[in-house]
Design goal:
Layout: H1 3-6, E1 13-14, H2 24-29, E2 41-43, E3 46-48, H3 54-69, E4 73-78, H4 81-92, E5 98-101, H5 112-118, E6 122-125, E7 128-129, E8 134-135, H6 137-146, E9 151-154, H7 165-171, E10 176-180, E11 203-207, E12 218-222, H8 225-234, H9 244-257, H10 261-281, E13 298-302, H11 311-318, E14 321-322, E15 324-328, E16 333-339, H12 341-346, H13 353-364, H14 370-382, E17 386-387, E18 394-395
Parallel strand pairs: 1-14, 5-6, 5-9, 9-10, 10-11
Antiparallel strand pairs: 2-3, 4-12, 7-8, 11-12, 13-16, 15-16, 17-18
Length: 399
């Protein structure tokens, strides 16, 4: 097998809400000698020597992360969103503590409950309003008044709405409230004013390769000195290597996106709303019409029961359209979860969403031959070969 040939990018339409396109500089960092090196470190009994200055890269990445999110503390040692989740939960939750999370059918991450239970935590589910597709804050306040909770770990991986940090804090004033913003880290610059660190979330963390167009990694920011101390004390036992090349790649991503972060976030959301409108106009069944189909990068499609769980996902894959089929909180049944963050990173705008919606309609509603649709998918993808929001659009090397 020619492994390098297999890794070349194929023209496709990426509607995965969990992927993005690295810039050429950020991708180049992953092919440097740093990919196999540790930074300099000292302990009371050991010295790990480094002569290449990797610590300066780590410090620069931390400084950029603090600036990007307006936070007093930042950590970039995590390898992934799940790695971040493990570290945060074990750093802030007392032994046999009580944690509340989103149920998987309400958009919670599939792994959170298992992780919490494996550490001996008692797990409860946040009350969820399926009509408004938001946490029921009044019900949460009533529940917490009778059953105090140590940690609320808000782990929404399937979400059309931004969380309200102030409403959560009002409902659970004594809890440590941690937002897993894996799906939202690139959108926070356009988030409502209620999504806060001071007076809201104790920490915001998550993976860095979804709406934030960085490498596969994780980060955490906080304004709490106490929480920062707990996380810093925990990291040596969860991250012996932080993969220096990915730290460098993340630093480049933040550096390039920093001046454009609000424009990028607003465009991702605008594209998602327009995609929702175009899909509804063509006859797809979408939730969220009352609020413009979405407030985030995600757009959901309800599938007909006759299609089964996997039929649409497999059909889209056969036409070179990358998507995910998951359980949707709007009806607690499998459906399509689409995302516009990579299309936006390509440079697409609202008017381009009509072409995207038409491709899906031809395949899923009008049953056109997937090979014919795939040919048009390739043509559309080749119109957007570069990376936007890095200054001037930058071309990516052709596959």
């Amino acid at each position: 097998m020619d492994v390098l040939a297999a890794l070349q990018r194929k023209p496709s339409l990426n509607l995965f809400p969990i992927e993005n396109r690295l810039s050429p500089r950020a991708a180049a960092a992953l092919a440097t000698d740093a990919v196999n090196r540790y930074p300099y470190s000292e302990t009371p009994v050991a010295v790990y020597g480094d002569v290449t200055g990797l610590n300066a890269v780590y410090d620069y990445c931390v400084d950029l992360t603090k600036e990007f999110y307006g936070a007093r503390h930042a950590f970039v040692q995590f390898l992934s969103g799940l790695h971040t989740m493990h570290t945060v939960l074990t750093a802030v939750t007392p032994r046999a503590g009580r944690v509340m999370v989103l149920a998987p059918e309400n958009g919670g991450h599939y792994a959170t409950v298992t992780i919490c239970e494996s550490f001996g935590y008692e797990v409860g589910f946040l009350p969820f309003d399926r009509e408004r597709l938001q946490i029921d804050h009044a019900a949460l306040a009533a529940h917490v008044a009778e059953h105090p909770v140590d940690v609320i770990y808000l782990d929404a991986s399937t979400t059309l709405r931004f969380p309200d940090a102030q409403a959560l804090r009002s409902a659970a004033p004594a809890a440590t409230i941690c937002l897993d913003a894996s799906h939202l880290l690139g959108l926070l610059a356009a988030a409502p004013g209620t999504l806060l660190l001071d007076g809201g979330f104790d920490s915001i963390s998550g993976s860095t390769h979804k709406t934030l167009p960085g490498p596969q990694k994780g980060l955490l920011v906080t304004n709490s000195d106490g929480l920062a101390e707990k996380v810093a004390a925990r990291i040596p036992f969860t991250a012996s290597s932080s993969h220096s090349a990915t730290v460098a790649s993340l630093a480049i991503t933040l550096e390039e996106l920093l001046p454009h972060r609000a424009d990028y976030a607003r465009q991702v959301i605008a594209n998602a709303r327009r995609l929702g409108e175009e899909l509804a106009r063509r006859g797809f069944d979408l939730p969220g019409e009352s609020f413009g189909y979405t407030d985030t990068h995600q757009v959901w499609l309800h599938m007909p029961e006759s299609s089964g769980t996997h039929a649409w996902g497999r059909l889209l894959t056969s036409a070179d359209i990358r998507t995910t089929t998951v359980v949707l909180p709007s009806n607690a049944r499998p459906g399509l979860r689409l995302g516009t963050q990579e299309l936006t990173r390509w440079g697409m705008k609202e008017d381009d969403m009509a072409a995207v919606a038409e491709l899906l309609a031809r395949l899923l509603l009008r049953s056109e031959d997937s090979r014919k649709v795939a040919a048009d998918v390739g043509d559309l993808a080749r119109e957007f070969p570069g990376v936007a929001y890095v200054g001037q659009p930058v071309p990516v090397a052709a596959a």
